[in-house]
Fold these 4 entries.
Entry 1:
Amino acid sequence: MGRSKPVFYEDTPDELYTVEKTYSEAEETLIKFVEKKIAQMNESLLFNGDDTPGFGKLNQALMEYESVMLGLLTLHQEARFKASVAQEKYDNFYAEKFIEVKTRDATLNPKKMMAAKEIEMAVRKENMTQLAKLKADVLETENEYNFINHLVESWKGYQFILGTLSRNSQAEAAATGVAYQNPYDGN
């Protein structure tokens, strides 16, 4: 993507470009993750809606449903853990830098210390690139976690569809069997 360097601050355009690039790369990584997981889920679907599945395909789908769900739940827990760890890394780095700025300010200006909001802004300004990398990781892992949540919910819906198709097939088979045993002769 031909992105130009943003110019928000005249004294730090390179930092801001790096920040934008960091977020763009995180977004690209997330999109690849989503595309890969969707492809894997499509492989787990035993029919794509083009035709009515037979008993064999339905039985196979019903038997394999739980193993796919267990795999999704594993991914869900991994994604939740990764998101928590990423947030913890961000929070720890931010806290460390906050204390550094606060301590430095107290040493340089013992009579008039900076307000908390001023310290926060100084931390962000001084650590823009590192914070962007950590925040991009937080955003990426949180979005992966949310996406896996949606996959789990979608897979639960697939269970309903499988059950409905199974009941419909059973009813159709029963009706066909009744019609075969009691043919209508038109009189």
Note: The CA atoms of residues 22 and 184 lie 72 Å apart.
Entry 2:
Amino acid sequence: MRSLYYRTVKRNRIKLLGKVLRCEKLNNGELDGKRFCFIPYNGTWNTRFAFDGLTALWGTERFSKALNTEPRNVVMQLEEESNGILAPDGVYRWYFWCESCY
């Protein structure tokens, strides 16, 4: 099974592996129309943090795909762009997505 999935956010939702997922921190279409790299968790992270059924928004699709193909200066620029979208004030608010976040 693949570990990375690229999806476009629509109405604060994505469809991944046959499920409709959303993030409880999104309310106003903040990420609508943008493509991101998502990584589903298939097990538990440790005994304190159970991540079954959650999916992490890793970063933008462009940044993810550039890591192994683009020169370092381009990757650094795309990382800044990705961070500007996901953490405009330095705080990540849109990290975990799940079915039960409705």
Note: Strands lie at 5-8, 13-16, 19-22, 35-40, 55-60, 96-97.
Entry 3:
Amino acid sequence: MMIRPAVLLRATLALLLPALPALAQSPPEAEMSFSTGVMHLREGRVDLALAEFKKAVKADGKNAYFQKGLGLAYSKKGEWKPAIAAFRRALEINPYYADVRNDLAAALVGSGDREAGKKEFLTAFSDPTNPTPEVSARNLGQVFFEEKNYPEAINWYRSSVNRNKDYPDGYLGIADTLAALGQNTEAVLQLEAAVALMPTDIGLQLALGQAFLRAGRFGEARARLEAVVRKDPAGPLGRAAADQLKSVPK
């Protein structure tokens, strides 16, 4: 299982957008390019976003938000070296822009430098100014999960949940780790608790259906997966649930 880029991108873009009013020191054309780049990135037009962020950086290379946007666009394309350079430049400009460490860490992991990536995630998690420590903890857990270091993985996933009980990815990580350890009943219990807290989260509903299936609770699995299909019939989660239903014994 890999670090989910979509999750990281949602978090980082959400933190870019409130920054727009603070860009008064940059030229208007740079602000416009940045705003347009954010819009393109949110809507999946990565090449267009990259072009706009390059324009913004060319007009004002000392704006940390512009550098972060540029790094996000490069990361989305899997171009890790320029992404890392952009994130590091953002931190040089503003050492207190703690959330950029999440982005830098993810890019380092993507580039293959896993130890450096883990170090950056840990630094981000420990930084009291980090607005999303739960994301840092979850992603650090994910790196350990990929390395099959399950005790460390579950510790960091639990740290994520402890920092933000309304962040579903921490619960998903705990459940994934328990399933990898063959503890399917415990995984179901974790996901049931998460669904009780966040009953409208479709991703948790899908995971619970899958956990029921692994635990051999086929009737409950079918009910959960069918509910996901009804709630997201044309979306990726609904399609995943429909595909999973094919393996549920009747």
Note: The radius of gyration is 20 Å.
Entry 4:
Amino acid sequence: MPINLLPQEFKPKGYVVTVSHTLRKVAVLLLTVFLVGSVAILGAFIFTSQRIKGSNSMQEELKTEIETLEATEQRLILLKDRLDKVKTIEDANNSGEEVTVLGNVSDLFSEGITPKGILVSKGLTQVSVYADSLANLSHFIEILKGSGQFANIALVSFDYDPEDGYTAEFSFVK
């Protein structure tokens, strides 16, 4: 049994003792709730920060992957454009007959006639020649006319330069 050395008038009243015991229990309970709450908030903070770090690293990986895919897409678009251009060229320049006409004309070049320029496109073959004399040019025209390989020979242009000689441009239809 405890010994109370305080005089009786300083002895706490019964309701004060009960309130103090109740307050002590409430304080312990509140301290426990506070500690448990603090630990829960700290745990939630750590968990959330870990998820944020994971999300940031995932975001960086996705950005890198998107950049790679964009570069690949750009290369595919350029490749598609090139293929479209190749197809356009193949469709437009199917000039097999015109090349044959050019071959036939080149076989007829005689001495004194030098090719200066050639234009081959769909439905058109033009040959520009240089001749050192009018006689050589006339002889070449006679050879073209006498070959019988062309349905139509058109003289597109004719020039004379005293230093270079004669330049004539012909258009051929087979």
Note: The mean pLDDT is 83.
